[in-house]
Amino acid sequence: MSVENIDSVLNEERLFEPAAIFKADARISSADTLATMRHHANEDYTGFWAEQARSEISWHQPFSTVLDKSHAPHYQWFSDGLMNVSYNCLDRHLETKGNHTAIVFEGEQGDIRTLTYHQLYADVCAFANALKAQGITKGDRIVIYMPMIPEAVIAMQACARIGAIHSVVFGGFSAESLKDRIEDAGARMLITADGGHRGGKIVELKAAADKALASGCATIEKVIVYQRTGHAIEFKEGRDLWWHDAIDCMDSICMPEWVEAEHPLFLLYTSGSTGKPKGIQHSSAGYLLGTITSMKWVFDIRDSDTFWCTADVGWVTGHSYVAYGPLAVGATILIYEGAPTVPNAGRFWDICQRHKVTIFYTAPTAIRALMKLGDEIPAQYDLSSLRLLGSVGEPINPEAWIWYHKTIGQERCPIVDTWWQTETGCIMIAPIPGAVATKPGSCTLPLPGIIADVVDENGNSINEPNKGGYLVIKKPWPSMLRTVWGDDERYIKTYWPKFGGKYYLAGDSARRDKDGYFWIMGRIDDVLNVSGHRLGTMEVESALVAHPRVAEAAVVGRPDEIKGEAIFAYVVLKGTRPAGGVDEVLTKELRAWVAEQIGPIAKPDDIRYSDNLPKTRSGKIMRRLLRTIAKGEEITQDTSTLENEAILLQLQGKV
Ligand code: PRX
Questions:
Q1: 300 CA to middle of ligand 1, Å?
Q2: 457 in Cβ contact with 260 (< 8 Å)
Q3: Does ligand 1 come within 6 angstroms of the Cβ of 565?
Q4: CB atoms within 10 A of CB 244
Q5: In the predicted model, is pLDDT for residue 6 greater than 90?
Q6: Rounded distance between C-alpha atoms, residue 285 and residue 264, angstroms
Q7: Least confident residue range of 34-48, 195-209, 270-284, 638-652
Q8: Ligand 1 mean position to 470 CA, how many Å?
Q9: CA proximity to 293, closest of 460, 428, 394, 123
Q10: CB-facing half-sphere around the CA of 80: CA atoms within 13 A
């Protein structure tokens, strides 16, 4: 799809200068300091990153090569250095802040636990020893399918400690999705729990895991099960092992495995426009560096902070800003297991008040949902501990931004709207809160050392204000993905298909305003962004077509007030179309079916039945037309190439 004709309709002129109170203590507190950093990065790109890597990472063996481009676009950073991510997150803090709180955990049912860096270190070591006792060695893949509890982080850190590669699968994904990910990664072990508490119910993780394993996953040898809920589950002798038994008698010291900087730290599966989810592969040192610099620059993190990123560890945000970045800088994080509205709509604000949260980082979908519940709810809580607010996952609409600023931040806290992706590893475009004025809806400017641009079809920079184009990154950066697991070809085709393979193609369209601020406009491919999570239209279509009654399906997004995008599915059945295009029973069944195949987040919000899908003569589905119809807009496209124009009325739900 061409992005050149996209002109922006958004015209947001409000500018918010960094609050004086924030600026006074900020690490980067002036535009001049920031300009100096940018200048350094622009003049001596590799020197800039080498300096960061030397000062921010504790190396076992220092690196001498900074950036190796010889296998481009498979770039390597700091490749002859040796280090360990878990060592950087734990051991190096023990002497100075062993008794500093690393994790404050609150379960949905109100149980609270805190872990100091000493305790977290001991727990990670014991579990790392347990993994070794089960025969896990460097390079083995381990799938983690856990609730949002400290043990999810402990499991990730333990993998990092021994050089095993983890792949966390979001607990909301179905058995089928879990199975696909286990098989693609060729994992030897699955770490899960008997369940988790969410939305007042138990999430049956172990039952889903059993189902996944019963249908395949031949590479899995052992399943370690953490006892979270204590309710009855099936246990398979010989394969399943309780977490508490696995760590019983294990030493609470485990020497880290020193790995090469490029050793894969993890895989994380994400949706693409075609085919099955891609296992995005991240490195150890480069990835860690990006999480550390962004923690310092964007979140201005300090020891006195309690940092709460609400993302689940199943997403990249939960990797970079729960499990790794904050621990690497020795911060205190808050982890909350459950839903934002249990037992009532004030839960998030109640947590902020009781634990004196200072930095709160969440997604626009959550902000909009909480905004809808009314100002009276946050007004009942003391939110004076907050000093900085963040947003991630999708563009934040100005209305939600202003609400966040006024009602939650009480006009005191800067808002950092952070643009990044699973592939980028860490935040790429975002305000430095003490130095950059913000505009509601804009992620502002690229971080130092990130060479982002908006270009046209030919790769030329678009300098005309507010003209849309492709968002690209023009130079490799340390925390970038290294490849798609087991599929280098797909990596090259997806991310480097244009501009002679020179620029990383993010897959988003963007524009820059007269001040050079970036505004993300949306995806250029068939990827939906539902509640800040990426879903390929193809994935949902494949799930629908797998149902015995469905012949064909086309899925598009339509704007949704809370979720950002809602899923609209057009379905052609085998046999006759239901009268009037409505069949509530079947619709319910198909929604449940998709939830079963992928997970509840992929459930179509609307399903409309028609005799056919609108196709061009060459057989391509006219998605733009379907999007127009889903939005309820007038059709202005040329429909003369349609074989059967009469189906338009069916697609519109008029007959
Ligand atoms: O379209 C952009 C949108 O989310 C996509 C990345 O999705 P994912 O890999 O799941 O990672 C989400 C969390 C980092 C991007 O290509 N996106 C993410 N953050 C923003 C955003 N769109 C606009 N503004 C943002 N701050």
A1: 21
A2: no
A3: no
A4: 11
A5: no
A6: 9
A7: 638-652
A8: 15
A9: 428
A10: 6
